[in-house]
Amino acid sequence: MQSIMRHVMDMLPYILISLPFIAIFRGVRIYCISKKGEHTTVLRECAMLLFLLFMAGLFSQTIIPKIEITASGIGIVQNGEGGINWVPFKIFADSVREFKAGNRSYFIINLLGNIGMFAPIGFFTALLWRKVGFGKAVLITFAISLFIELCQLPQPRWTDIDDLWMNTLGGAVGYGLYRLLGMAFPKLPDKFKVRKKVQI
């Protein structure tokens, strides 16, 4: 729980900084949508704002270089642990090792963390855009995860093939949550989609 809270607090400054830029971007998009004879909804814009803020927070912790403030000024962190893991499912062997060493939360934090952090991508892409089914939602999640892993290569961060399948699984879980929402409230998902203006 402390690890999760630390990441949330680390995300917060980036989320706040991105808020006005996202608001301007959405204002322009709403205008463009209106010019095309379509309209959005308050529910959709609230969900879109939440999704874009989440993405800003996610990128702040995965691809934006870490910044440090020292007596000599502000700079990018160059030192730190990093590397590449090309061995699929290494997380299970690492979890056994960590468990024996007394770190019993390693597996849960890494597995659920990687799945949970990418579940919103599968959920929101299906919720906000039409014609995004299971395959597209999973593919989008995979593409974003791959982009993040590639961006981490030149940084002092870990690039891990296990992150790819866990993140992609998170997208599938997120889409599953979207389907459950549709089953529980059949008319609700349509309120998050762009609609054609009704001609009077």
Characterise the protein shown here:
It is globular, with a radius of gyration of 19 Å. It is mainly α and 200 residues long. The strands form three sheets. The chain has a two-stranded antiparallel ribbon with strand order 1-6. Helix 4 packs across helix 5. It has one domain (2-195). The mean pLDDT is 87. It is built from six helices and six strands, in the order αβαβββαααβαβ.
Q: Average pLDDT, to the nearest integer?
A: 87
**SSE order in H/E notation?**
HEHEEEHHHEHE
- Major sheet strand order: 1-6
Shape: globular
Largest sheet: 2 strands, antiparallel
Number of helices: 6
Strand content: 5-15%
Provide a short characterization of the protein structure.
By secondary structure, the protein is mainly alpha-helical. The chain contains six helices and six strands.
Kindly list the characteristics that best describe this protein.
two-stranded antiparallel ribbon; mainly alpha; globular; 6 helices; 6 strands
SSE topology:
Elements: H1 2-35, E1 38-39, H2 42-62, E2 67-70, E3 73-76, E4 83-85, H3 90-100, H4 106-128, H5 134-152, E5 158-160, H6 161-184, E6 195-196
Helix pairs in contact: 1-2, 2-4, 3-4, 4-5, 4-6, 5-6
